[in-house]
Design brief:
It contains 16 helices and no strands. With about 400 residues, the protein is mostly helical. Helix 6 runs antiparallel to helix 8, helix 9 runs antiparallel to helix 10 and helix 10 runs parallel beside helix 13. The termini are far apart.
């Protein structure tokens, strides 16, 4: 049972850790998120070291076949000590949350040090497995003390987590956070089954009773791994709703806007290549920008505006007048009219630039009067998207000399 559930939980923990880890700068700004990342990271390590090949590798590398039990228990204690830190930062004022965080982390470090001291006193044994370590050592008084200390701390930590989740779920007005906290609390309660079976095993060894049946051992790991899976899932639900989903939406929106601006940018860049700071080598590479999408989008808006400025000497008043008349007849007005006329002006200016034709009556862009409303990069993106919606570049072979010449 352990070798079936452990890899599944390890994958869940590793996936959550990697998703929360990026970008790292957010962890410095959000202590709750940093503590939650530690929860997933320590949980991932605890599962990984409990997989038989990793367990054996650790034993061979350290010269102590049972070293995996210290690594597993130590990382679980670190995970348990960081779980209430997450709740503290979620529900308490910042200063009080920091004091609680220091208390929980200090207690966790002290317990890990005590476990290490007891581990070093364990008698030598042959190569062990994660499934057989308890059976091999259960009749050792040192191991009984080691296991008892771990179980008491584990139970206390999960009890604090279950009670804290119940209280926090009642306080919050965010449905996703409340649901996630209830799932975390249910997972914490489920792990009590693991602790109860392990404590019963210690009691059986002390009183000389029979060892628990294999089915009971499987039930213990089902409670431990099932509870951990619920805790990880519950913690990730509010994180998914508050952090991951908005980031994915922002990435998708930036990628969509980047591609929408592509025809306008291609036309401007073809006429004025120097506007591009880091142009992609091919058109396909430009469309496949998957990283730093927001930066590439904002860079594209800057380059289009630079191209507009470079083409300002090619603007003809008759083009603007005819475009305004046509779009007003189509029912456009206000900012939308200015964007549609600007798109026509850009198209004509590009043709004039291609044929090196100067305007008879210079003009300015129709959207020049709306620039005061553009106060943020997002505002500029939205304005250029409106221009791009009306911009239809003509193929080079269809371009003709501007009519005003």
């Amino acid at each position: 049972m352990q070798q079936l559930l452990h890899p599944l939980c390890a994958v869940l923990a590793v996936a959550g850790f990697l998703l929360l880890l990026w970008p790292p700068r957010r962890l410095r700004q959000d202590p709750a998120l940093a503590a939650l990342t530690c929860v997933y990271g320590f949980c991932a390590v605890s599962f990984l070291v409990s997989i038989a090949p990793v367990w054996t590798l650790l034993g061979d590398a350290t010269g102590r076949p049972a070293f995996g039990i210290l690594a597993a228990f130590g990382t679980v204690v670190a995970q348990v000590s960081h779980q209430p830190v997450v709740l503290a930062h979620w529900v308490l004022p910042p200063e009080k949350a920091r004091r609680r965080a220091r208390l929980y982390r200090g207690a966790g470090a002290a317990v890990i040090a005590a476990l290490a001291a007891l581990f070093l006193q364990l008698p030598a044994t042959d190569r062990t497995t994660p499934q057989g370590i308890t059976a091999a050592y259960l009749h050792s008084g040192v191991y009984q003390a080691y296991l008892a200390l771990y179980l008491v701390v584990y139970c206390a930590g999960q009890a604090v987590l279950a009670l804290g989740c119940r209280a926090a779920a009642r306080r919050t007005d965010q449905p996703w956070i409340a649901r996630g906290l209830r799932i975390v609390g249910a997972g914490a309660v489920l792990t009590f089954g693991y602790s109860a079976i392990r404590i019963a095993g210690v009691g059986s060894a002390l009183f000389g009773l029979d060892r628990p049946a294999p089915a009971v051992e499987s039930l213990a790991w089902l409670c431990a791994d099932g509870g951990n899976a619920l805790v990880l899932t519950g913690f990730f639900l509010p994180t998914l709703a508050v952090h991951v989903v908005p980031r994915l939406r922002a990435w998708s929106r930036a990628r969509r806007d980047h591609r929408t601006l592509a025809p306008l940018w291609d036309a401007v860049h073809h006429a004025v290549p120097t506007v591009a700071l880091q142009p992609a080598r091919t058109r396909a590479a430009s469309r496949l920008r998957l990283w730093d999408t927001t930066w590439h989008l904002y860079r594209r808006t800057v380059e289009i505006r630079d191209g507009q400025w470079a083409l300002r000497h090619r603007l003809e008043e008759s083009v603007r007048t005819a475009s305004e008349r046509r779009h007003r007849a189509a029912g456009l007005d206000g900012a939308e009219l200015a964007c549609a006329v600007t798109a026509d002006q850009l198209r004509a200016a590009l043709a004039a630039h291609r044929h090196d034709v100067a305007p008879q009556t210079p003009a300015e862009y129709a959207d020049a009067g709306t620039r005061e409303d553009v106060r943020t990069p997002d505002d500029d993106v939205r304005a250029l998207l409106r221009i791009a919606a009306h911009f239809t570049p003509a193929p080079a072979e269809q371009e003709t000399t501007p009519s005003w010449t």
